[in-house]
Amino acid sequence: MNLSGFGVAYALGVSLAAPPGPINMLMFSEAVRNSRWSAFSIGLGALSADAIFYALVSTLRSSVLNSKIIFLLYPIGCAVLLYLSFLLVKGANAKQSEKQVKGVKYIKGLGVGLTNPLQIGWWITVGLPLASIFGVEFALGFFSGILSWVLGFTSMVSLYRERLVKAFKVISYASAAVLCAFALYFALLFLSALTA
């Protein structure tokens, strides 16, 4: 196994799972009001959505890689990552939702994950090239990173409850920095493809 590919994908998985967004807000709310396992089921649903997108990307990968579409995905992926970084910095001071999560938690997480336009856009523009570059290490690292975040986040919120609200700002800035680094990587791939 290529440990560098695994590590890169792990960092990316954590950086994408950690920022404040609909899934983390749902997990936060559920962990504060109920239990970490209830919050974990929401995160597991969202992870399942990513697994579905990964399966689709892996199926389409061979046909897409043989076309010139992959060349265009680098600048688009760079733009998506920069936009996500912008949203993280902009929303770093956003307040947590006070609404209680109701219904089947796993299905709610899966539904939010499958209908999130940014998540869909990320898999088309960023996930496809990364899966083609790193192969199986990408999947193992990426989903390990997401699962680590979901387990750690729900456990910490259930232990410390409202104290973690302040930590969201630090998490947002750190995640934005990681996403910017990946955006730079995609820009360099695009520039090297242009000069090749």
Automatic annotation (TrEMBL):
InterPro entries: LeuE-type. The keyword Zinc does not apply. The chain crosses the membrane at residues 37-57, 69-89, 120-150, 170-194. One of its GO terms (biological process) is amino acid transport. Signal peptide: none annotated. It comes from Candidatus Marsarchaeota G1 archaeon OSP_D. The keyword Membrane applies. It is a multi-pass membrane protein. Pfam families: LysE. It is found in: Cell membrane. This is Lysine transporter LysE. GO terms for cellular component: plasma membrane. Keywords: Cell membrane, Membrane, Transmembrane, Transmembrane helix.
